[in-house]
TrEMBL record:
The keyword Cytoplasm applies. Residues 81-92 have a biased composition (Polar residues). It holds the Pfam family Striatin. The lineage of its organism: Eukaryota, Metazoa, Chordata, Craniata, Vertebrata. It comes from Capra hircus (Goat). One of its GO terms (cellular component) is cytoplasm. Belongs to the WD repeat striatin family. Residues 17-89 form the Striatin N-terminal domain. Its main location: cytoplasm. This is Striatin N-terminal domain-containing protein. Residues 58-102 are annotated as: Disordered. Keywords: Calmodulin-binding, Coiled coil, Cytoplasm, Phosphoprotein, Repeat, WD repeat. It comes from the Eukaryota. One of its GO terms (molecular function) is armadillo repeat domain binding.
Length: 102
């Protein structure tokens, strides 16, 4: 009887360890996904800026892009806050690089 109870307790602890491991792995995957989504948003915004800059240099007029606001990197997709676009593209480049380093 004692051996059976000992076996059950050791099996339960190994199951709990496996559950904890899988939960940690899932959390890591969620963090990776969130980071990749943040990087994609940053790259899409940088591409829009480059296209607008090229259009202005080639045609001499501003390109009318409706949603030329920088994306909110820390929020979820549904809770994005509007941030005023900054004029200095050099500053935006530095901020983008800092975001990638995080």
């Amino acid at each position: 009887m004692f051996l059976y109870l000992n076996f059950l307790s050791s099996k339960g602890s190994s199951t709990e360890a496996q559950i904890a491991f899988l939960q940690g792995e899932r959390k890591g995957q969620e963090n990776l996904k969130k980071d990749l989504v943040r990087r994609i948003k940053m790259l899409e915004y940088a591409l829009k800026q480059e296209r607008a800059k090229y259009h202005k240099l080639k045609y001499g007029t501003e390109l009318n892009q409706g949603d030329m606001k920088p994306p909110s990197y820390d929020s979820d997709e549904g809770n994005e806050t509007e941030v005023q676009p900054q004029q200095n593209s050099q500053l935006m480049w530095k901020q983008g690089r800092q975001l990638l380093r995080q």
